[in-house]
Queue: 3 jobs
Job 1
Amino acid sequence: MSRNRKRSDRPPPDYRGAILGVGLLVAGLFGLLVLLTPLGGKVKAGLGEIFGQRSAPVQRNQEGDVLRKTPPDRPLSPLEADPDPQFPRGVLRPPSGTDIRSLSKGINLKVEFDSEEGDLASLERNDEDSYLAEYSLKVRMPRPATSLSEVALTSPHLIEVFPGLREMIPQGNLSAWYRQLYANKTARVKSDIGRLGEILSRHNFYDCETILNLRSESTGQRIFLMQAEMDVVSDGSDGDRLPQMPDGIVNSTNYQPFTSYRWRKTGGTPNPMVAGWESRIGKANKELEGSSVGEDRATWLRSRIKMLETGIADMKFASFLIAEYDPFIVIPTNIVKDRRDPYAPNIGDFAIVLYGRTAYPAIVGDAGPTYKVGEASLRLAREINAKSTPYSRPVSDLTVTYLVFPRSADDPRRAPDYRHWHKRCEELVDKIGGLGEGVELHQWKNLLAAE
């Protein structure tokens, strides 16, 4: 009895430790399996964020191989950051492709960024000066070439072709039109200074090297000498010589049928541009008849119709030079209208254009803007550079010399006669010392002559 009583006094077996051990073993195996799967990476990253640690990101290729590890990018807390940062300053080069750079038209833009400590944002946003861009255009006005050596820099064959100028240039004077030209350019820039897309480009601002008044001591012959580039004009029409023109020109709203040089129409063939202008009048009248046209638009259309009717009457009365066929140059309007300056060219005056060693006879055939020089007809431009178009100038450098003989125009004016132009230019050149040895004036071929 006593033995049985002792067995019953033993405590029952405790299996909790064994169960706990098995549970930990199972949990460990499960955790190991989880960490070996994609889910494990997420769990590990989550634990790192919970305990304030960030593991370095790992980059793998498609096969799962580790390529490299990037260092942890831990942001600084406000207490660790510089409590007194330096505000950025300096001159920056604007990145390519920005609008302001594309609109600058050759202007060298320097962008300066400067910041300073201000007031509360709620206050600064209402102050126009807190976020301000300042734009300043600086222009250096060019000095003219006046000496023989300076004139020869851009036209090295000038004295070779016209030896008489060797004595005339040192005795010549700077034309007042040179200063006036750059004054007009400056005024133009000032008026457009806030519109970078319309402002005069650097190329067109510096388009004139010099303008000189020269005079032969022996004959008294005057010369208006100008050194510039050469741009292209493509205006003009004449039904008597060119009764048909391409439809693209006839119906163009940009092509100008007129030139300043004109003469009384002699033939009965209508100017081909009349049909296109009459068509534009018809379209304008049809639009005016519509019920949807506004008052402002109607006023503009009536003004346009009046202009077109005046132009048609002019084309029925007169003929004009044709830039594609006739060699002529363009002089600013304010110069050709001047009758007081004995050196100022007028419409119809004979001229010689020198490029390289070739001298081209021409006339002053049209008037242009008062802030631009160096323009010639498409015919003359193509003779110098066959690739010239109304949109592609033949000469971009200031290497063209224009010699105009003031007050030499024929009276009355008449249709172009290239042989007569050649003869008159030879006579005028003889009055300033003649051409150099072996030099001859260019002979123009009449491209509109009947075969």
Job 2
Amino acid sequence: MKIKDLIFGKKIAPDSGGAKHYAESVQNWLPVSDIRDGVIITKDGRFVKLLEVLPVNFYLKSAMEQQNIIYYFSSYLKIAPDRLQFLAVTQKADIDAYISRMWRIYDAEENESCRGMIADNIAEVEYLADREALTRRFFIALQYEPRMKLRGNTIEGIIQRLNEEADTARNYLDLCGLETLQPEYSDIFLGETLYELLNRKTAHVAKLPLQVFSMVGEV
């Protein structure tokens, strides 16, 4: 079984009436049917490319830099796909790594006064994370449109064209001084991102294990 089959489901036995998914299963309501070569394929037949953009503070830029950002971004919008979405996702800050490090320092500290201060710091960070600390992720979603010219009228051709559109977006965003993430394994990146977007509360306390893809492969 592949990880994508586990997440998105696959056809079950023919004697089940031809249903694609079990009733009331996660796969039954999940709008995604597959992820291929960094492109999301939805159940209603759409092809979507998702880019994550690292933010910058526009107001900390010089007047010249601000003008360049506006110019190049407006230039990109003139050639961008008609169906273009900008997504901002707000989540609670992930402090697990920091807290674990502070507890290791706490255990190694011999001075009781220092240990008390470290414990107070941990408690304060946890308090702020629960009530105030937030992280934001920014995405650009590109969707395949019939007007896009393809080298071949196939799914592979659509995926190739969307990846070319993503490269064009990256080039213009680079001129704006914005960096877009280019993960080594795009399908894994999308799987993890969808997990976090669809399970925003659960993902904060239960991360998708990095080894889950190899584990399912072995199964």
Job 3
Amino acid sequence: MNNMQNPDPSVARRIDLTSLQLFVAVCEQGSIGKAADRAYMAPSAVSKRLSDLERMVGIPLLHRHARGAGPTPAGQSLLHHARSILFSLDKMQGELSEYADGVRGHVRVHANISAIVQFLPEDLGTFNVRHEGIKIDLEEHLSTEVLRAVHEGAADLGICHTGTIGQPVDLQVRPYRQDQLALVVPAQHPLARESSITFADSLEWDHVGLHANSSIYLAMRAAATAAGRSIRLRIRVTGLDAMCRMIHNGLGVGLMPRRAFDLMHGVGNLACIPLADDWAHRRINLVARDFSSLPVSARLLVEHLEPPPPDHPFLQPAS
């Protein structure tokens, strides 16, 4: 008979971190005894804590057997959340210790590969010189994932393309930089001597593409559909340097930002042909849930990254 009771709705507030740590240790070690050794506790004390935890949540969390112990389906769910909680606590402790060491701010930035390759190294470098006490955590993601991270609060600031992908309506957008897509081909390719080309004219050849959800590939697919054509995609890669190497070795042609190609000196014997299509001129934006409510450190970064005030409004809604 199951002696477990229905869980108290407020149970999450009463679970202590030590019990979570011990539960994770048992699941990872597969044994209460081994987990007790790792925690420098008596096995009976560990077992009692876990039994108390099970009574508190009202659900069996561990299968206990002669060879040790393992999580039940409910235990697997708790294990996932416990690891996330403990990771967040470790990260919080690390960030707080940085403040104690003199760091005056912390900004979480998610950006797409185009922004990271073309512009952010120099821009963040000069920001770091001016604001040494502000730490920036930069992660590379697809534009769709950047928008999601900002929307969910996993990033303070996003830097990505927003023109060809849907985005939550509650995000704010400010301009950052512009880039132009170009077709990269082997130096001996029939198109190599063209001064410019439309994307439709490149569809006669195999393509080396980026991830299916990348802003570049989404724009390519939309343009091919508008032309009533299809893309002969031979291979996908996750980075621009890998794309160049594939193109150099005859696996197709590919699209990438022109400035990114110029910055990757010597990655294959290649030629770069600007695209004449209007959509090939793209804008990279700064994205936040609310620029006015960002922490001071994040607002300083936004001010540093923004271009001089152009003709368009200083703050515009997402489009």
